[in-house]
Amino acid sequence: MNAMETRTTSALLYLDGVHVSFDGFHAINNLSLTLEPGEMRAIIGPNGAGKTTMMDIITGKTKPDEGEVLFDGVTDLTRLDETRIAELGIGRKFQKPTVFESQTIQDNLLLALNVDHSVRGTLFWRETRDESERIERVLETIRLKDARHKLAGSLSHGQKQWLEIGMLLAQDPKLLLVDEPVAGMTDVETQQTAELLKEINKDKTIMVVEHDMTFVRELGVKVTCLHEGTVLAEGTIDQVSSNERVIEVYLGR
Amino acid sequence: MPHVLTRSLDRSATIFLAVVATIGFLIPLSNLLLPAGSMFQVPTYLVALFGKYVCYAILALSIDLIWGYCGILSLGHGAFFALGGYAMGMYLMRQIGSRGVYGNPVLPDFMVFLNYPELPWYWYGFDMFWFAAVMVLLVPGLLAFCFGWLAFRSRVTGVYLSIITQAMTYALLLAFFRNDFGFGGNNGLTDFKDILGFNVQADGTRAALFLLSCLALIIAFLICRAVVTSKLGKVLIAVRDAESRTRFLGYRVESYKLFVFTLSACMAGVAGALYVPQVGIINPGEFAPGNSIEAVIWVAVGGRGTLIGAALGAVVVNYAKTVFTSGPLAPYWLFMLGALFILVTLLLPKGIMGTFNAWWEPWKAQRISVNAESTALEDGVNVSKPKPAE
Ligand SMILES: Nc1ncnc2c1ncn2[C@@H]1O[C@H](COP(=O)(O)OP(=O)(O)O)[C@@H](O)[C@H]1O
Ligand SMILES: [Mg+2]
Hints:
Number of strands of chain B: 4
Bound molecules: adenosine-5'-diphosphate, magnesium ion
Strand content of chain A: 15-25%
Number of strands of chain A: 10
Distance between the termini of chain B: 22 Å
Number of helices of chain A: 11
Oligomer: heterodimer
Shape of chain A: globular
Order of helices and strands of chain B: HHHHHHHEEEHHHHEHHHH
Shape of chain B: globular
Number of domains of chain B: 1
Strand order of the largest sheet of chain B: 1-4
């Protein structure tokens, strides 16, 4: 089959009938979800709903037992490893902020740039003007310009979150998977993060997992609620938050 | 690559190189030029002993490159060192020619003794120095490449990797002990006569070997510095600190590991090759798992991830070993070494060099900022925050 025939969807990300179990525990159950190019999608759901596992599947960390995961309509992500998937243009921010603690903020961004990642390329690398300008812009966006020479490990939790978002920007992927970006942030920082994501969404597709309902409301995008590894409800924030089942399993009351 | 050089030579690296170069010249000169018995004359046995330390320093550098910068704790690096040593030993054996006890022009004594009908094929070529020199790099390099390719691709990391490196060196130990393996079994290779036509016992040869070892240490250090100060060095640290994060940024982690692991094994091989003519013997004992562990302790003592510290640690610990094992405390050396390791881990977790840096860097940064402030005041511009020293 050639690529034209296999292209079944216009979606940038297409998950269909995905199953994953860990030692008999079904973490993901018949999960189907599509993301259109340019869309931003918020994912909510109780702890253990499988949100992070879904990102693990998309980025190649976890292989699904069953189901289809297509990127850009043609690329079967289940056959690729993390490196290859990152090269295709899928970037990820982890739930627990993961930056390179013993290196400076600037070096963290330098490492994230989507330039030649081969052993040879990095061994003989020299900074180019274009690269330093890109790093400069990201530093400005994430407001860490003055701290550029500080070690990433010395940042506060919230700043690390921003640095990791900055690394995503430097990576310049087509699709950003952002796992709980505002955990540990003040209200003001949360607000700023929402604005930043909206800004990024102008030319990138984003999937963002978050518990903070004010934040999700602030984003004002389509919401998917996961529960026990499957989609419970999908729609606007008002539709989803008034859904009986969602209230029952997630929002409480 | 001039930019590679300028980048890798910071102040402490330059000092280190200057010290090694000075020692590399002064010790042989004093040994050869000053009259024997004079206060400043370094006796030949000490030249050989120091030469041994220098080889250990190269081995320590090779371990620090992978462990300190990439987090690969190899407990089998002694194997690469020993393989380099055997390659050199094979050359030295072939140089003996018909001067052996049995006077066989081709077969080394042990082969005559064990009734080898002819020279095994894998001994071919070792009568030529250039061939042996290539093998010194190729054999450890190839083994490391194959081993690393299997291990890193299957993502064997941490303590599991350390264990299989121990298994590797242990397997080689057993193999080299066998008489039918063709490397002299238990006794190994010894009774060397000359190297490139020079008598290995002669003062001049010893002095030259010492100088060459220092030169090799300098080159190994420069290579390590060039690697760790490049962007590749930053990737290695990233792998060490957050391996899977590095993958999600699109780096092929296994290729990076394979590159440094192989490079490091080649360096260890060179160290072993320089070691053998200076100590006059290579036997399977060099593959003993304990040797590899000792080498890791040198690095921990000197300061992991500092390069200079690794070299320093090798010299300091081995000097201590020489002192202790030649005195009444000899039977307790292993306990001392163990105690040293525990003490360093508890009291100086960054090792000698790391602790020194932690104490020195803030002081230096402060001095730089004071300087910057005074010049800035003179220029009448605003003082920006001092950039922390590298
Ligand atoms: N590698 C794993 N091995 C075993 N169980 C796992 C693994 N990863 C996730 N799980 C389980 O899968 C479920 C979903 O986890 P997760 O995706 O982290 O949830 P969420 O991010 O929605 O809070 C949890 O019950 C978790 O314990
Ligand atoms: Mg999660």
